Each structure stands twice: as structure tokens, then as C-alpha cells.
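User: What would this chain look like folded?
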Amino acid sequence: MAVPKRKVSPSRRNMRRSHHALGANSFIEDKDSGELRRPHHVDLKTGMYKGRQVLTVKED
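Assistant: Here's the prediction, encoded as C-alpha cells.
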């Protein structure tokens, strides 16, 4: 069984994880409603996706 020769230092461990951070969410302005929404996601206010109605919107 392989055993590490020396303990990995915290600095080296953190450098390895330097690109594990989460990026900020991107939002685009919807062409029809002007609301901000995530790209490639259903617009929950209108129920539209790629120009098609995919969800029925509940009335409050």
C-alpha cells in the first residue's frame, strides 16, 4: 500500500484546491418579459423555455 513520504503542507493543499471555488451565478435579461433569469433554465414566472410553454403558471 502506498504511503506518503511527508505530510502535505497546508499551503500546498490549498494551492491544489485553488480552482475549487464556486463562481458567481450568471443571469440574462429575458427577451419577452425583461426579467432576469438563469440561462438554459425555465422562466418560473411565465413557464416559458426556448419560446415554448412548458409549465402552467399558478395564479396567486
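Residues 26-60 form one domain. If you want, I can go into more detail on any region.
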